[in-house]
Write a structure and sequence with these properties.
single chain, 196 residues, mainly beta
Length: 196
């Protein structure tokens, strides 16, 4: 479990395909604090540390993960949002994030608003995921509040700190991002689906 509060950015150092799997080697300021078998969120995807070497560590994404997230599009040198699993008894600053991406979305608009930014994302509504106005959403692992919720899109407002300390400053219109919908929203969506 995660909170959606990004600890740091990591840099992709190496990508190695092996069958349907992708081994992703990342350098990060938190590498020295990691252990093999530890869960770390990468752009909102929970992956297990399989090896550590100096300031770099490696995780493996399987074919299922690559087909449902943006990790298959990673390039060497690209930045990833990183968060270690939350500690039991610690403050929950974001919201409950499982690290299980529901689907991807496309960035359709970026507006600068005198010191903040509004990003709009479009997603396929056929998967029955929903956003709720002023509800929570996880974008590439970042816990955010939904504004302008629609059936197939939503926006988020980004403060300067988040813009600088996450991948948001690298996004361009057309980029693919990972979405994890709020657990409460998923529950409401499922109830509505069952009611017909």
């Amino acid at each position: 479990m995660f909170t959606g509060i990004i600890e740091t950015l990591g840099k992709v150092e190496k990508l190695e395909k092996e069958g349907g799997n992708l081994h992703i080697t990342v350098s990060s300021t938190i590498t020295s604090e990691l252990k093999i078998d530890q869960s770390v969120s990468h752009n909102g995807v929970c992956l297990t540390v399989v090896s550590i070497d100096a300031d770099q560590y490696t995780v493996t994404a399987i074919e299922e993960t690559l087909s449902k997230t943006n990790l298959g599009d990673l390039k060497v040198g690209e930045l990833v949002n990183l968060e270690r699993a939350m500690l039991l008894g610690a403050r929950l600053d974001g919201h409950i994030v499982q690290g299980h991406v529901d689907q991807t979305a496309i960035c359709t608009s970026i507006e600068e608003k005198e010191g903040s930014w509004v990003y709009t994302f479009a997603y396929d509504p056929k998967l029955n995921n929903v956003t709720i106005e002023k509800g929570s959403i996880t974008v590439d692992g970042v816990s955010l509040t939904v504004v302008d919720s629609k059936k197939d899109s939503f926006s988020v407002a980004i403060i300067p700190y988040t813009h600088e300390h996450t991948r948001f400053h690298t996004y361009k219109v057309g980029d693919t991002i990972n979405l994890e919908f709020d657990v409460v929203g998923k529950y409401v969506s499922r109830l509505l689906e069952l009611r017909g």
